[in-house]
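batch job 7 of whatever, protein = Sulfatase-like hydrolase/transferase
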Amino acid sequence: MEGNIRKVVFIMTDSQRKDMVGCYGNPHMRTPNIDRLAEEGIRFEKAYTAQPVCQPARAGLFTGQYPRSTGGWTNSMGIGQDVQHIGQRLNDHGIHTAFIGKWHLDGGDYFGMGRCPEGWDKEYWYDMRNYLEELTPEERVLSRDQNIIFKQGVEEAFTYGHRCSNRAVDFLEKHHDEDFFLVVSYDEPHQPFLAPTHYAESYNDYFIPITEGHYDTLENKPQHHKVWAGLKKDQARRSEEAITNQTKSGKLGRDPIYFGCNSFADAQIGRVVDAVKKHAPDALIIYTSDHGIFFGEHGLWCKGPAMYDEITNIPLIMSCKQWEEKGIVDNNPVSHIDLAPTIFEFMGVPIPKMFMGSSIKDQILTKKRVKDYVFMEFGRYEVDHDGFGGMQLIRAIFDGRHKLVLNLLTSDELYDLEKDPSEINNLIEDEAYKEIRNKLHNALLDEMNRSRDPFRGYYWENRSWREDATEPTWDYTGMTRQKENEEYEPRQLDYMTGLEMAQAVRGK
């Protein structure tokens, strides 16, 4: 059981929140193929994205580093030339690496540049621009128009997801005898939600359920949450009238094309999983999504600068034939940042020092918790857009029960998710939680320093509620923390001597 696994299939969706997957407790969501993976493997209940936006989430997944350390901490801002993705690193260890689907890390617009980065197999590279270039101008317009679902219908073969699955099946048919790492990255169920009409029609009677989170007044919440929810400058809380108007029917609303596309994405995943079982039955299958989405909880919609579970707590399932136990539910906190080192350890590849997470292989095999905390962040929704709140620098930490959120430009949050799973009661000033809050705060500051957060500084420590914070100084910790990326760069030099550094972390 503890031997290396030299074949890995990594499957991900876009904007698929956890309760859009049936096995996570929503019987109305028809996702039989993903559910089957959970029955045959491990379902993680407390898995978190690094940042709840498309590109930064992918930066964390596919570089093993926090988004802010890659250069890609917002949409449409590519990762740096000195940042190696995991495909390149694995390929350099003799593993056949292929990426099929949405990449979003090249600094282009939503669709990408259509160029295969070094390390991935060019024959299988297929980002969204490649898809559009297969279409006529008229078809391109139709591919972005959700109205065609009911007006003229959508052929399965027309969709991006179907074409991605075709390539994945082809790869498995031709290369199953090799050591490989295959990524299948669907845009679905992201807007425009294209899928054959019958998928949407099957959700015509489904309404988004009302939860406690929909009744959040936002009292004692950060100002940017209130602005996002549409409160006026002089409003301290959402009014009862606004909440009633949103929830008066007892059913928040219908979105059949979104949930239909969700089931369509599951069907496409099923095609790939069936091909894995046929051609590479011993492969490790990993499934996840980049982030969730708000359906009006806390008065918010879509995704953006918040750390509520609706957008940060994502589905994560792993399945492998050689694991003896099936249907395991893991309630320990894990992060997308941990997946790269986990994959490397399973594949028997040395884990680079540049990876900022830690492998959870031992947790998977022994069921014992290996991490004290997971960390999340936010920088900006998209560099091209002035909206979506603009820059909102956020750092967060979660210990499996308590979540501390530092909103640098507004005010901070603390939640006890065991007592308050909807994250309504902000405990940041609650004296009963002072010891827990400060312990989380210290651990978060330590992680920002350890991982060379480019935005770190005294201002994250000197919060209004932290009475024992050290006096602000220009030198802050007085440390320098140089990179150790020696698989791809010469060892960095000491500024004072010009010689190779002896210690990467040292007093400045």
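notes: The mean pLDDT is 96.
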